[in-house]
Design goal:
single chain; 524 residues; Immunoglobulin-like; 4 domains; five-stranded antiparallel sheet; 0% helix; rod-shaped; disordered N terminus
């Protein structure tokens, strides 16, 4: 009896799936004893009257490398269904987003995914009789891409360099490993972990723009929009200064004026040397002897302090004090004016003090000296006090010399210090003395008996020294000491590149402070 599995009885072959004819023709029938289904061959498929089956074992894998930001990709693999009708295609669909991809077999690649977003995927099969139900969803997989491009916020020029500040974009789902900034022209680059980045090696005077990119494990972002243009150049340095000139010396009676007191801010060109000159205090005045009643001659006048200079800033030396004279204009002007004279020949008129610098004539540096006085009998009188940086010198009040003007305060070195006090006025015979102005030891005036001497002012304070006094007979006056030398103090947040003149260097509150007590220079 013939084997029905290989027989053509009824024109239909039969057997299990593996026994299907090797080279069937379209229209051949086959009864599959394994599935108990009659199959017909068509265009490479053994068709049944069943719908397409449901795929299984769906697995997704992120495909992040080189993917543009917000254009992620995943590869989805699955197992084709068995015991199924004809399947002509498969479709994979994401959740969320419903992004899809279709194809004839596993795996399928789906694109257009959002960066840093977790997706699951399900697969359906489609055949002539329709589309299957969706498979069980895959496990969630986060889509990663290259980063989003940074945004450049600012570009700041420096000496052959530019600082580029930027805001980071999204990571693309994978940690940023670094940023790179590139110039145009020249393609000079700087790389680092965060903003800002400094691009060096640029040419001063050339205009540049910059772009920035971010990199993660998947690759490098698109370039940012180009920055605004910027020209590297040597930047100026903003410094604060205190420039005090040398104090004036006192005289026979009149107190010496304080040196000019100038303080403020100055923008300096870098890589340029700026000179510093510290003015000397006025030299002392020798004792004076004007016997034989020769009052017509100027007696025992003081000396003027030297100017101090820093870059373009000049501070005037202190004015000299007046002696005994019939000349009303004897005391000299300066940073602060010198104290006024005692008039000779028994005059009762006031001897005017010298004028300090005022805003109408130059930057304010000091104050006027006080007026001197005398009496008709010629037996008593006092010199005016020298002006100070913070106040005018006091007027003499017979027979007492005027007080010196107060100094000015500055905290440029980190703590408040008073500089540039005026010298007190000396007194004619038997008179009292004026006190020194507060600020750096301006000398008190002396008077009364034995031709007393006014001591020198403290150095590097710009203080004026007091006037000397007459002896009991009024014929002889003691010597006056020398004015205080000046000082120049410079403070900036940037340290100097070099200095000369051996200034004292300190720091305070983030400032670099240089105190010059002698002439020199500073370069930033």
């Amino acid at each position: 009896m013939a084997d029905i599995s290989t027989s053509s009885l009824g024109g239909i072959s039969k057997g299990n799936t593996a026994s299907r004819p090797a080279t069937p023709s379209d229209g051949n029938l086959y009864y599959n004893t394994e599935t108990a289904v009659l199959e017909v061959y068509d265009s490479g498929w053994w068709l049944t009257n069943r719908e397409a089956g449901v795929p299984t074992s769906v697995t997704a894998t992120n495909q992040g490398s080189g993917r543009a930001y917000n254009n992620g990709s995943a590869s989805v693999t699955f197992t084709a269904p068995t015991n199924t009708g004809k399947i002509t295609s498969y479709t994979v669909t994401s959740s969320p987003g419903s992004y899809t991809a279709s194809g004839a077999s596993s795996p399928l690649t789906i694109t257009g995914l959002q960066s840093s977003t977790q997706y699951t995927y399900a697969v359906t099969a489609t055949g002539p009789l329709g589309t299957s139900a969706a498979s069980t969803a895959s496990a969630g997989v986060t889509s990663t891409t290259v980063p989003q491009a940074p945004t450049i916020n600012s570009v700041t020029s420096g000496n052959t360099q530019v600082t580029v500040a930027f805001t980071a974009g999204a990571t693309g789902g994978s940690a940023i490993t670094g940023y790179t900034v590139t110039s145009s022209p020249g393609s000079f680059t700087a790389s680092g972990a965060s903003s800002p980045l400094i691009v060096t090696g640029l040419t001063n005077g050339t205009s540049y723009t910059f772009t920035a990119v971010a990199t993660n494990a998947n690759g490098t972002s698109a370039a940012s929009s180009a920055s605004s243009s910027v020209v590297p150049e040597i930047p100026n340095v903003l410094v604060n200064y205190l420039v005090i000139a040398g104090g004036g010396s006192g005289a026979t009676f009149g107190g010496g004026g304080a040196g000019g007191f100038r303080t403020g801010s100055l923008s300096l060109s870098a890589v340029t040397t700026h000179t510093v000159t510290v003015g000397a205090g006025a030299p002392s005045v020798a004792a004076s002897d004007y016997g034989n009643g020769n009052y017509a001659l100027v007696q025992g006048y003081g000396n003027v302090g030297d100017n101090s200079v820093f870059s373009t800033i000049t501070s005037a030396g202190g004015g000299r004090g007046g002696g005994e004279s019939p000349n009303a204009n004897f005391p000299l002007n300066g940073g602060s004016g010198g104290g006024g004279t005692v008039y000779a020949s028994g005059s009762t008129a006031a001897g005017p003090g010298g004028s300090g610098n005022t805003p109408s004539t130059s930057p304010s540096q000091g104050n006027n000296g006080g007026n001197g006085n005398g009496n008709a009998g010629g037996t008593a009188g006092g010199g005016g006090g020298g002006g100070g940086a913070g106040g005018a010198g006091g007027n003499a009040s017979i027979p007492i010399g005027g007080n010196g003007g107060s100094g000015g305060e500055s905290s440029i070195s980190g703590s408040s210090v008073t500089y540039a006090g005026g010298g007190g006025g000396g007194a004619y015979a038997l008179g009292g003395t004026g006190t020194a102005g507060v600020g750096g030891g301006g000398g008190a005036g002396n008077g009364g008996r034995n031709g007393l001497t006014a001591t020198s002012a403290s150095q590097n304070t710009g203080s004026g020294v007091g006037g000397s006094g007459g002896n009991s007979s009024g014929w002889h006056t003691g010597p006056s000491g020398g004015g205080g030398s000046g000082v120049v103090i410079i403070s900036a947040t940037q340290a100097a590149a070099s200095t000369t003149g051996s200034p004292t260097y300190t720091t305070s509150g983030g400032n670099h402070i240089y105190k010059f007590t002698g002439s020199g220079s500073i370069t930033y």
